[in-house]
Specification:
Shape: globular
Number of strands: 5
CATH topology of one domain: Beta-carbonic Anhydrase, Chain A
Largest sheet: 5 strands, mixed
Order of helices and strands: HHEHEHEHHHHHEE
Helix content: 40-55%
CATH class of one domain: Alpha Beta
CATH superfamily of one domain: Carbonic anhydrase
Number of helices: 9
Radius of gyration: 18 Å
Strand content: 5-15%
CATH architecture of one domain: 3-Layer(aba) Sandwich
Structural class: alpha/beta
Oligomer: single chain
C-alpha cells in the first residue's frame, strides 16, 4: 500500500472537494495544479486524494466541477455508474494501492442510462444493442421498485427518484461486492459520499454517506 505523509483524512478530502464545488457554482474557480510544474511533479508518481466513480455523461466532468487539478482525482466512469468488474477493479486499485481516503459516487440529473432503463420497461420498447442492454440492466430492478412504491407502472417511474435510488444502490453494491472497500470504510481509512450533480446549478448534492465523514443533514 502506498502511504503519503500528507494523506488527507476522509473528512478533509471531502471538505476540499465541497469547497471546490462551491467555487465552481459561484464562478470563482482557481484551476489549481494545472501548470507545467505540476506536470513535472507527477512524473514521479501519483497520490490522488479521491477516487470518483461517475457516469460517462459529458456534463459532470469531475476535475472541473470540483475545481481540482492534475493528479488530484482517480476517475472511473461508465454510463450510469454501473458496478462492473472493470470499474470495481479500478476502484480497488485506488483504495488498496493509491490509498485514497475518499470515494465519491457521482450521479447526475437527467441520466440517459436511467432514462433508458425506465423506457426499456415499456411493452413495445425497441430491442437495445446487447452491450447497452447489459450496461443498463442492473438499473431496471430499481425502476420496478420505485414504481411499485409509488403505485405506478414501471414506464411511468419518476426518473429523479430512480436516479437517487440507483445512486444509493451503487454505494451499497460497492460495499457488498468489495471486501477491500468495505474493510477500508470499517477501519476508518475510507469515506464514501454519494452525490447528485445538478446540471443547471452545477452543485453536487450529497444523498448518502458511509464511513468517517460528517455532512449536515445526512
Amino acid at each position: 500500500m502506498t502511504q503519503t505523509l500528507d494523506r488527507l483524512t476522509p473528512q478533509a478530502a471531502w471538505d476540499r472537494l465541497a469547497a471546490g464545488n462551491r467555487r465552481f457554482v459561484e464562478g470563482t474557480v482557481l484551476h489549481p495544479r494545472q501548470n507545467a510544474d505540476r506536470r513535472r511533479e507527477l512524473t514521479d508518481g501519483q497520490h490522488p486524494h479521491a477516487v470518483v466513480f461517475g457516469c460517462s455523461d459529458s456534463r459532470p466532468a469531475s476535475e472541473i466541477v470540483f475545481d481540482e487539478g492534475l493528479g488530484d482525482m482517480f476517475v472511473v466512469r461508465n454510463a450510469g455508474h454501473v458496478v462492473s468488474p472493470s470499474a470495481l477493479g479500478s476502484i480497488e486499485f485506488a483504495v488498496a494501492i493509491l490509498d485514497v481516503p475518499l470515494m465519491v459516487v457521482l450521479a447526475h440529473e437527467a441520466c440517459g442510462a436511467v432514462r433508458a432503463a425506465i423506457d426499456s420497461t415499456q411493452e413495445d420498447a425497441p430491442e437495445l444493442p446487447a452491450q447497452i442492454w447489459r450496461l443498463i440492466a442492473p438499473i431496471v430492478p430499481t425502476v420496478h421498485r420505485i414504481a411499485r412504491d409509488a403505485g405506478t407502472k414501471p414506464p411511468a417511474a419518476d426518473a429523479t427518484a430512480v436516479g437517487i435510488a440507483h445512486l444509493r444502490a451503487t454505494v451499497a453494491e460497492l460495499l457488498q461486492a468489495s471486501a477491500i472497500v468495505a474493510d477500508a470504510v470499517a477501519s476508518g481509512r475510507l469515506g464514501i459520499v454519494g452525490a447528485i450533480y445538478r446540471l443547471g446549478e452545477g452543485a453536487t448534492v450529497p444523498h448518502v454517506v458511509e464511513g468517517p465523514i460528517s455532512i449536515p443533514g445526512l
